[in-house]
């Protein structure tokens, strides 16, 4: 059984910082991409950041220069450092992992709330 455990969400003021982490447990083979998505009320879920097995990163334009994604392959962990947070960043953030040896599967975390408000 695969489980993704997220932590780090919370309430911060504009300009503040949060660090989200996601740890994958269970039997997971050949993890490839790891990333973070978010969904704000009334809006579609969108990709925030993604990092490949080799370390290549991709960010949504709205978070470039403010967010940094990283991973620890040995610990099956992906983190998202969020700096200079804005009210527009308020959303539920979901961890996502793509993995599979011969076929790939998507695994999702339970979601963690990030609220940016004064």
Largest sheet: number of strands, sense, barrel closure: 7 strands, mixed
By DSSP, the count of extended strands is 11
Helix content: under 10%
The SSE string, one letter per element, is EEEEEEEEEEE
Low-confidence stretches: none
Based on helices, strands and strand pairing, what is the structural class?
mainly beta
How confident overall, as mean pLDDT?
95
Number of helices: 0
Describe this structure in words.
The protein has 118 residues and is mostly beta strands. The chain contains no helices and 11 strands. It has strands at 3-7, 10-12, 18-25, 31-39, 46-51, 57-59, 67-72, 77-82, 91-99, 105-108, 112-116. The model has no long low-confidence stretch (mean pLDDT 95).
Q: Quick gist of this model?
A:
With about 120 residues, the chain is mainly β.
Name its key features.
globular, mainly beta, seven-stranded mixed sheet, single chain, 54% strand, 11 strands, 118 residues
Q: What order do the helices and strands come in, and which of them pair?
A:
Elements: E1 3-7, E2 10-12, E3 18-25, E4 31-39, E5 46-51, E6 57-59, E7 67-72, E8 77-82, E9 91-99, E10 105-108, E11 112-116
Parallel strand pairs: 2-11
Antiparallel strand pairs: 1-3, 3-8, 4-5, 4-9, 5-6, 7-8, 9-10, 9-11
């Amino acid at each position: 059984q695969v489980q993704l455990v997220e932590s780090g969400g919370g309430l911060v003021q504009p300009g503040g910082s949060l660090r989200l982490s996601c740890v994958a447990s269970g039997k997971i083979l050949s993890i490839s991409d790891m990333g973070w998505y978010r969904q704000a009320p009334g809006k579609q879920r969108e990709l925030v950041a993604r990092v490949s097995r080799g370390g290549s990163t991709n960010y949504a334009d709205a978070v470039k220069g403010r967010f940094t994604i990283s991973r620890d392959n040995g610990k099956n962990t992906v983190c998202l450092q969020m700096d200079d947070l804005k009210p527009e960043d308020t959303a539920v953030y979901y961890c996502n992992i793509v993995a599979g040896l011969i076929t790939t599967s998507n695994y999702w975390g339970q979601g963690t709330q990030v609220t940016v408000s004064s």
